[in-house]
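Recap from last week: sequence in, structure out.
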Amino acid sequence: MIAPRIMVVEDEEPLGVLLRYNLESEGYQVEVVTRGDEAE
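Predicted structure tokens:
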């Protein structure tokens, strides 16, 4: 089964890393970007 994907846009990098860690531990594939214009 393919893991659901989530993109986190968070300008504070440490918070983005924490969110990635928590979401990945729940089975999500996570991409973190720090600016909205980086989101694709």
